[in-house]
Design a protein that fits this description.
Layout (H helix, E strand, L loop, with lengths): L9 H8 L1 E3 L8 H9 L3 E4 L7 H14 L4 E4 L20 H7 L2 H17 L4 E2 L24 H17 L3 E7 L20 H6 L2 H10 L3 E4 L17 H11 L5 E3 L6 H4 L4 H11 L4 E3 L6 H17 L4 H25 L28 H9 L1 E4 L11 E5 L16 H7 L4 E5 L4 H9 L4 E5 L6 H13 L4 E4 L11 E4 L5 H12 L2
Parallel strand pairs: 1-8, 2-3, 3-4, 4-5, 5-6, 6-7, 10-11, 10-12, 12-13, 13-14
Antiparallel strand pairs: 9-14
């Protein structure tokens, strides 16, 4: 049983309980273990904390040795946003690829297998799925993280993802409420604004969240966005109208409300993380996510003290803080019982052994370890011309590489070069960006066949120009689009993968090499 350190008063314990901090390193620092003993109830994991499934399982066991009911959260969407496989790329295609297939049974199978792997490593809360509708093609932060631009499609796949993940004993955290899809600004950098009318929001943005709630999502993550039709003065994370009035009262949601990262500039650069955290709890949030960029004891103490001071000054009611802390503890209880029911084991201290992720086999079954590759293959949209036959000699892979958004990160490899090297030894590659990218790629390729890999080409003029340059000189170029395919197919063969996960690159490479 969890033992709270003596001398820690109820108010301080509740203030710690609503925090979900991160930390650096692949083992738990002493300060984090100390705070768990004082009442901290959640920990957030990021790519910097993970070296392998076995190491992750040891880390979560270390946390549970201090507090057996700790919530261990992670941002593991699969696809482009992976922490479990941050150094290799994901074994699972992301939402956009699953939406392209539009088989809800497959989506549920993918999320169930992802949940099984997380649970085997001791993770019991996943900050996923994204229920955002990608209604703005220029969105710089959602894109392939969305199931698509169609409301009903996004709703049914959101529900399927929630069901699959939670059947493995891992709580889903559906995000980013009330919908981050119609934005042109990344909330990691500034405050986005959605000027849609209320009728549009109700018939579009809110529909997937209703589906997630009906599917039983155990958590919902708020968005740092301003939606004047809902609240003209406060962003969703800090808005009582949105979190309490809309989400709790109108939509009838009774689970945990988690904030997006409070260190993101949409909040940190406007309200500050301490003030923002107090306002978020007062508005109806139950858990404060912080730690993507701030990951130390000083941050935890600053937020704890800010919440305690707000209660003592009367700015935040003690009852609201206690209610938020109780919801955190309630979710911890659910994860323990759900893990037992699902047989996933390790999320609640069981004995399931974590397994290394692999590329899968050629099986057409959609279950177990193969499901990610099966899904990635089915998601491909391949447009061939008479100029294309599968490659038999090593090509040159020209990767036109945009700046990655913070949610995706730049440490995770992407593309098709690694897989093509296995199939066609001698394959070489280079990364290009900027106004001379096309010319430089041609020079680097020499006489070899070119495989051009692009990512959201519709959002990057320089990338479109580079591809123009390549195709004018080398019309037999193979084109692989690993973002949202908005532009017309071009090249001898055009392969849209609907995401840049490693498994998507493998599926594309199989087409290129004819394996």
């Amino acid at each position: 049983m969890t033992t709270i350190a003596s001398g820690t008063d109820t108010l301080t314990r509740d203030a710690l309980a609503v925090l979900q901090p991160g930390f650096t390193g692949t083992s738990a620092p002493s300060w984090l273990l100390r705070r768990l003993g004082e009442g901290l109830a959640s920990v957030g994991l990021f790519g910097r904390n993970i070296a392998s499934p076995a190491q992750l399982a040891a880390l979560t066991a270390q946390l549970r040795a201090e507090r057996d009911d700790v919530l261990v959260a992670i941002d593991e969407e699969g696809g482009d946003v992976t922490r479990l496989e941050v150094r290799t790329g994901s074994s699972f295609p992301g939402n956009h690829a699953l939406g392209a297939v539009d088989d809800v049974a497959l989506t549920e199978a993918v999320s169930r297998e992802l949940g099984r792997r997380l649970a085997a490593c001791g993770v019991n809360l996943n900050w996923a799925p994204s229920a955002d509708i990608n209604s703005n093609p220029g969105n710089p932060v959602i894109g392939v993280r969305s199931f698509g631009a169609d409301t009903s499609l996004v709703a049914r796949h959101t529900a399927a993802y929630v069901s699959g993940l939670q059947s493995a004993g891992v709580a889903a955290c559906t995000k980013h409420f009330p919908g981050h899809g119609d934005t042109a600004v990344d909330s990691h950098h500034a405050m986005p604004r959605i000027d849609a009318e209320l009728s549009v929001l109700e018939s579009r943005e809110l529909v997937p969240f209703r589906a997630a709630i009906e599917a039983g999502t155990r958590a919902v993550m708020s968005a740092h966005i301003l939606v004047p039709a809902l609240d003209p003065s406060r962003p969703a994370t800090l808005s009582p109208r949105i979190l309490t009035g809309l989400l709790r009262e109108e939509l009838g949601y009774d689970g945990l409300i988690v904030t997006d990262g409070m260190e993101m500039q949409a909040i940190a650069g406007t309200y500050g993380i301490e003030r923002g955290s107090v306002l978020a709890i007062a508005a109806g949030a139950d858990a404060i996510c912080v730690g993507g960029g701030l990951a130390d004891d000083a941050t935890v103490l600053r937020l704890r003290d800010a919440l305690v001071s707000a209660v003592r000054s009367g700015e935040l009611s003690e009852e609201r803080l206690a209610d938020a802390a109780a919801r955190v503890r309630s979710l911890a209880t659910w994860t323990a019982s759900a893990s037992e029911r699902s047989g996933s084991g390790s999320a609640a201290g069981g004995t399931s052994a974590p397994t290394e992720s692999g590329p899968g086999s050629r099986s057409d079954g959609a279950s177990g370890a193969d499901v990610g590759l099966v899904a990635a293959r089915r998601a491909l949209t391949v447009t061939r011309t008479e100029r294309f036959t599968p490659l038999t000699e090593a090509p040159y892979v020209a990767a036109f590489t945009p700046v990655a958004n913070i949610a995706v990160g730049d440490e995770t490899p992407w593309g098709v070069a690694a897989e093509l090297r296995r199939m066609l030894p001698g394959t070489e590659t280079g990364s290009f960006a900027g106004e001379r990218a096309g010319t430089e790629a041609l020079a680097a390729a020499g006489p070899r066949r070119v495989v051009a890999v692009v990512r959201d080409i519709h959002r990057h003029t320089w990338m479109a120009d580079a591809l123009d340059t390549l195709l004018a000189a080398r019309p037999d170029t193979v084109v692989v689009e690993m973002g949202v395919p908005q532009s017309p197919p071009r090249g001898a063969v055009h392969i849209a993968t609907h995401g840049a996960a490693r498994v998507c690159g493998l599926a594309a490479a199989e087409v290129i090499a004819g394996t």
